[in-house]
Amino acid sequence: MHTITFYPLGNADTCLVELEGGKKLLFDYANMRGGKDGDLRSDLPKELRSKLKKADRDSFDVVAFTHGDDDHIHGSTEFFYLKHSKNHQGKDRIGIDELWVPAAMVVDTDEDIIEEAKLLRNEARYRLKEGKGIRVFSRPGKLEDWLKTQGLKLEDRKHLISDAGTIVPGYSKKTEGVEFFVHSPFAVRNNDVLEDKNTCSIILQASFYVENTDTDFFLCGDAPYDALQKIVETTKAHKNESRLHWDVFDIPHHCSYTALSSEKGKTKTEPVEEVRWLLEDQAAKGGILVSCSDTIPDKDTDQPPHKQAYAYYDDVRTKIDGELHVTMQYPKKDKPEPLVIKIKKTGAAVEKAILGAAPLISQSTPPRAG
Amino acid sequence: MPNGEHSVERSIKPEELEGQKARALAILLKSGRLPFVVFVDCLAIPGSRYETVVLRIHVEVGQRPVNDIRRVEPIAVVFDKQDETTPDVLALREGFPEVPHLNIRAQEYPRSLCLFDEPYTEVRLRWTPTQFLARLATWLRDTAEGTLHREDQPLEPLLMPDDPYTLIIHPNVFSKGQTAYLTSVSLQVIQDDPRWHIDLVTGEVRPSAATHLLMVVPVPDQTHGVISRIPKDLHELDSFLANAGLSLVAALRQLLVQPRKLLDTEKSRPKELGVILLVVFEKKRSDNDEPETLEFRAFFCEDANIYRIREEIGATSKPEKASLSRRPTDGSTIKLRSANCTFLCMRDCLNGLSGMQGNAQPKLMCIGVGALGSQVVTNLARMGFGEWTLVDSDVLLPHNIARHALHPGDIGKWKATSVAKLVNGILNESSARGIPANVLKPDAHSDDIAGALSVSDTIVDMSTSVAASRWLAADAVSPARRISMFLNPSGTDLILLAEDKDRKVRLDCLEMQYYRYLISNPDRYGSHLVVKGGGIRYGNSCRDVSSRIPQDAIAALSGIGSRAIRLALDGDTAKIVVWKSDEQWFDVTPDEISVRDVVRLDFGEWTVFTDQHVLARAMELRAAKLPNETGGVLVGSFDAQRRLLYIVDILPAPPDSKESRCSFERGTVGLPEKRQEINRISAGWLDYIGEWHSHPRGHGCGRSPDDCRQCVWIADYMQVEGLPGLMLIVSDNEYRFHLQQAVQK
Predict the structure, then answer these.
(1) What whole-number distance in Å separates Cα of residue A162 and Cα of residue A103?
(2) What is the pLDDT of residues B464-508, one digit of tens each?
(3) B146 CB within 8 Å of a chain A CB
(4) Alpha-carbon gap, residue B412 to B422, rounded angstroms
(5) pTM value?
(6) CB–CB of A352 and B60 under 8 A?
(7) Start-to-end CA span in chain A (Å)
(8) For this structure, is B629 an active site residue?
């Protein structure tokens, strides 16, 4: 059995993929929890440490940062062991066996990015120079100039670069039980103008394989609708439609309408056709949609999650007889818990364990006794 | 089940439910505290014993479930207010699939889920609403995945009999590839219990002794999964089997026409014979698997003899007569009473139940079936282990009942033959044989004993007699490996001596090494051979357990003993093990003693046995004192009858000895006390047996004139015991024993 775990972190993303063979791949790390009582968000470092401890490990096989925004990297430089910086090498820091980043997180200049992203960029650069422990998602040519400035040849680093439309090396259905098909970043970057980083985020289809059946997980990062549009067009053009099939769909950008259309809509966001096709026609019956976000508001709001987008996703859920979950509402608003999806030969199923008092209380810290 | 046809069920509040469990469930659901479950309603039917809680549950189900379980399932839980029967869990959705682990009900819908495989009396103790819902959730999840029935779980029954009958049959009634047949059998009815246990006597019997005709009908290739209701008449059974691809009526017609002999030899009798149908399903786990188990279902034809069945189904030996008889019916007038089938437990079955491989069985000859022997042998027999010949010259006396495997009904009978009978009863065989004889004085049974000795693989001595053990070691003519097992006098410790397969180390030498272990560990084994209440029993009686030993101790140690025999026979090496218990809680710890290679030296009339321990120890003591000589006393034993001397241990020089480069003079300080202690701990078996000393570097082991004088001196002392003088000399990598007969004065 493979599992996918989404953590309730408010409007932020962290998703842990654990393969049957023991490999652990973390997609984004955003420790959003404040110190205050009543903060319902996961204590992410604690959760992840306990996962690793159970497996008697101190590193992840892969840590992927889909892009460098705060809600995908928050606190990561306090948690991970950074090879390039002595100040970030404490004994109890968690190792990254292989770092996955989009090209932007290598080539971006200081003025474009936040402090924490700089550190991750420097880490990525360090690893790329070293030539190990790194995978950059990009059209290879795009990195050529930067490599030149470092006195490196593209030819010598090509094996560390994954372009859109390819399968990520090192993972196969046969041995690891999963393959990753790269949808983004794809090459539309204009040399002069730095586009919104979200369009350059990593977008993957993870296809899990259990006893001859495939279960597909579509990982979108913060993709806006036009990026999805392009992905759908390109994939169709290559007759690769099966690469857009999904059993589990990671709703982009905390259930923002911008992932569906340029128009929010009054009660419901109507998606552009390509996105509609992706969500409705490519879904497995009984598919699972997950919104990594705050609880869905009753009112219209500027910031995601947008109730109009949610209304559309709920229509999709009904249509495909599936499930729609919001991380901060799962299983209940007043006590969100990590959402675990188990992948077996019968497909993906959201874990719904009814626990008795003893297992629950033994996982919790009681209030102080007098 | 509530029968609400004319009553009106009423929706009530959770608090109004009468049963504590129903109320707890409804209140918990309504509180909304648990995820994935939603309260729907509570229903009561006025005057009914039952009340119902309705809920919806969100199921952990993937996109491609094996069984059609939905994401949300409506469920009703019907509680017995008196909490005597298990709450009935009903799937309310129309079209809920037919899956494994449903309860059989008169109506197909709503389907009733079987959540627990324990009886409700057990489940009830730990039933909480949360546990119940958690179980419901996993039942639905696993059913969706098709994994509710685990790979390691046995196959589900095809039919579930609801009549309280059990038929015990011999396993040879059906073997693989068997076709349908008819046989006459004799039934013995045992009605000890409201459940009728019906004993089917082994195999076919003469028609004159028959009480029933048994028709065996095999049904090949059935894939397990869904349990069906048991057919109640011949027609229902025929329909059920028709689905399984077999025409029962056709099979019966054939059976009942052909074996005319069986029916006609005693013309008056068949009418009195009852008829039993034994249907044998060959079951598979899935359509693609090979058959893995058999399911036996017996059906007694009520109030019907063979002729009536023939008429009913239109089977008759003379077709022209068929037209005269009543028109054949569909069989629905032949009512059936179903029975569970169970088997006589044969050796294979006993092996299986004990988790043992039923390999080739060793031929075991057991000398002595007293307290320990009878219990060890029956333990092993219950595991289907061994083919037994039992030798014992005693009869069972009333006091033996305190610690013997035999029944009081056997009092006055030979232990050997009675235990053999018990073993044969356990095994359903006749392989065990008892010889009521004393191996030391077999008299009329000499040939029997000799025969058994020659064919046995292993001889197990549990006779409590050292003499018998020594006879086995030295005299008994048999290629078999010998094992001896006995208790210490207070019954707290068990001792196993097992020869190696090639008999390089014999039982008597193992016994000596065991004594050496006792004297070498005086703190632990100082009182091992001492009889409680003081005094030491000498000779044979040290293994005699007719003292005050409780059966619980014998039971515990005979359990260990039977395991020890199995393990000893698993390996080829010699073993000495002492299991020592603490007397209060009977904590038992085994001490395995490493067996040393034996050295045998022949001196004409006398034979000397020693082992590597003694020689190594002498070398070690010599080396420590070089360049001086040293020496001391030899500890050992003798067998006066067989002229055997055993050198078992070596004592270092007493502190007042005089050791120099060319001489050694043994002192005496502490020696009498040491000698006394050795004698006490070994229950008299070990004592002073001679002297030893070392020669300096470069000198051989020959006797000097002084040595010769000392030999004579020793022999003179030992003469009063009828023993020779014995001296061991060790030098560089060499040793020699010198035997000196006393000089006649």
Answers:
(1) 10
(2) 888 899 999 999 999 999 999 999 988 899 999 999 999 999 999
(3) yes
(4) 15
(5) 0.73
(6) yes
(7) 45
(8) yes
Q: For residue B67, give the chain A residue with the closest CA.
A: A346
- Nearest CA to B498 out of B573, B386, B388, B591 is that of B573
Q: Are A40 and A332 in contact (CB under 8 A)?
A: no
CB neighbour burial string for B414-443, b if at least 16 within 10 angstroms, e if fewer: bbbbbbbbbbbebbbeebbbbbbbbbeebe
- Say how many C-beta atoms besides its own lie within 10 A of residue B721's C-beta: 12
Q: Is the pLDDT of residue A367 over 60?
A: yes
- Nearest residue to B145 (alpha-carbon basis) of B225, B60, B226, B65: B65
CB of A170 closer than 8 Å to CB of A184: no
Does the CA dihedral A78-A80-A83-A89 come out positive or negative? positive
B403: number of Cβ within 10 Å: 22
- Do residues B35 and A334 make contact, with C-beta atoms less than 8 angstroms apart? no
> Minimal Cα distance from A330: which residue of B?
B35
* Choice among B629, B677, B721, B734 that is catalytic: B629
pLDDT in tens, B4-13: 455 578 899 9
DSSP letters along B676-705, please? HHHHHHTTTS-EEEEEEEE--TT--SPPPH
B187-190 vs B159-160, strand pairing mode = unpaired
Q: Distance from first CA to last CA of chain B, Å, rounded? A: 107
Sort B484 into a burial class: Cβ within 10 Å, 0-12 / 13-18 / 19+: buried
Q: What is the pLDDT of residues B482-492, one digit of tens each?
A: 999 999 988 89
Q: Of A193, A186, A263, which is closest to residue A228 (Cα–Cα)?
A: A186
Question: A320 with A284: CB under 8 angstroms?
Answer: yes
- How many other CB atoms are there within 10 angstroms of residue B471's CB atom? 20
Contact B485, B466 (CB under 8 A): no
Judged by CB atoms closer than 8 Å, whether chains meet at A323 and B71 is answered as yes
Bridge partners of A46, per DSSP, are: none
Distance between CA atoms of residues A106 and A157, nearest Å = 13
At residue B237, the 3 state secondary structure works out as: helix
Pairwise CA distance, residues B423 & B378, whole Å: 6
Residues contacting B600, CB < 8 A, separation 6+: B607, B608, B609
**Chain B residues with CB inside 8 Å of A349's CB?**
60-62, 141, 144
Beta-bridge partners for B190: B197
What residue in B sits closest to A354 (Cα-Cα)? B134
For B527, the 3-state DSSP assignment is: coil
- Evaluate if residue B63 carries a pLDDT over 90: yes
Confidence of residue B327 (pLDDT cuts 50, 70, 90): low
Question: Per-residue b/e over A149-185, b at no fewer than 16 CB within 10 Å?
Answer: eeebebeebeebbbbbeeebeebeeeebbbbbbbbbb
Residues A98, A133: contact at Cβ < 8 Å? yes
DSSP letters for A142-155: GGHHHHHHTT--HH
* Element housing B474 (H / E): helix B466-474
Percentages helix, strand, coil for chain A (3-state, rounded to 5) are: 35, 25, 45
Interface test with A, best of B64, B138, B140 (most A CBs within 10 A): B64
Exposed/middle/buried for residue B193 (C-beta within 10 Å: 0-12, 13-18, 19+):
exposed
Q: Are A118 and A165 in contact (CB under 8 A)?
A: no
Q: What is the Cα–Cα distance from B29 to B72, expressed in whole angstroms? A: 15
- Other beta carbons within 10 Å of B538: 10
Using pLDDT thresholds of 50, 70 and 90, give the confidence band for residue B533: low
**B349/B361 Cα distance (integer angstroms):** 14
In sequence order, the 6+-apart residues with CB closer than 8 A to the CB of B328 are: B311, B312, B313, B314, B322
